[in-house]
Design brief:
about 270 residues; oxidoreductase activity; Rossmann fold; single chain; alpha/beta; 7 helices; Sc_DH/Rdtase_CS
Length: about 270
């Protein structure tokens, strides 16, 4: 197994990673494969997913699924796909998301609000629902549902927008704040059953999320974000961040539950 620079072991683990064709999701998939996990990589973009498969499949067991996680049936189908293909599910990484266009509440189109909230909050909630059900089902079959049994792990991908109010528009900021609540409630509800849930809060990264701006953005909202960006200490390295997610999902961090993991060079602390 290739060295990742951290002593990370996900051998025997099966993971679903959403939004895995590019950016942070791809970096997470790469880190998981290096650590020995079997990965089900999901993305809405079929061509990018194919390129991702060509690049990452030599690293380990990688199964690609084209899916739109905003659709109701995607969550149960993805969990079933993982179980059918690899026999079980151990880890869910809710990474897929879309950016808004910096609109404040007075300006936002409510249909666009619905789209952002569905993709960034409701879809992770659906994925978590069916993942938890599978964790519990498999755990009961194996007789391992007690706390400390590491029956399942969920890692939600948040954002500095889950801390700050001005780094995005109202829809994206609201979704990322709410994702913290989803994480904490899931952690508290299932810790006694061997299921952990954490959230990582990255700062600026080189991803394709900025395609949301191709049709323009709210200039006043963008100006507020730009002012906050001026005190940003720097971009986060995707590969290093992917390794952190892999480590946080490993059995070596069985103590980590309900954690809000800042990964932004201290940007939110300013």
């Amino acid at each position: 197994m290739a060295s990742t620079g951290m002593n990370i072991s996900l051998g025997s683990k099966v993971a679903i990673i959403t939004g895995a064709a590019s950016g942070f999701g791809k970096a997470i998939a790469k880190a998981f494969l290096h650590a020995g996990a079997k990965v089900v990589a999901c993305d809405i973009n079929a061509s990018m997913l194919e390129e991702c498969h060509k690049e990452l499949s030599p690293l380990g067991a990688l199964h690609m699924v084209v899916a739109d996680i905003s659709l109701h049936d995607s969550a149960p189908n993805l969990v079933k796909e993982a179980v059918d293909h690899y026999g079980k599910l151990d880890i869910l990484v809710n990474n897929a998301g879309i950016m808004d266009r910096f609109d404040p509440i007075g300006d936002i189109d409510i249909d666009f609000w619905d789209c952002v909230i569905t993709t960034n909050l409701t879809a992770p909630a659906r994925m978590s629902k069916y993942a938890v059900q599978e964790f519990l089902r498999h755990g009961e079959a194996a007789g391992t549902t007690a706390a400390g049994s590491n029956r399942g792990v969920i890692m939600n991908v948040g954002s500095i927008n889950g801390f700050r109010g001005g780094c995005g528009g109202v829809a994206y900021v609201s979704a990322k704040h709410a994702l913290v609540g989803l994480t904490r409630n899931t952690a508290s509800s299932y810790s006694s059953k061997g299921i952990r849930c954490n959230i990582i809060m990255p700062g600026a990264m080189k991803t394709n999320i900025r395609v949301a701006y191709k049709d323009g953005f709210n200039e006043e909202g963008g100006a507020i974000c730009q002012k906050l960006a001026e005190v940003n200490p720097g971009e986060v390295n995707l590969d290093r961040l992917g390794k952190l997610v892999a480590f946080a999902c490993s059995d070596d961090t069985d103590y980590l539950n309900g954690a809000i993991i800042s990964a932004d060079h201290g940007w939110q602390a300013i």
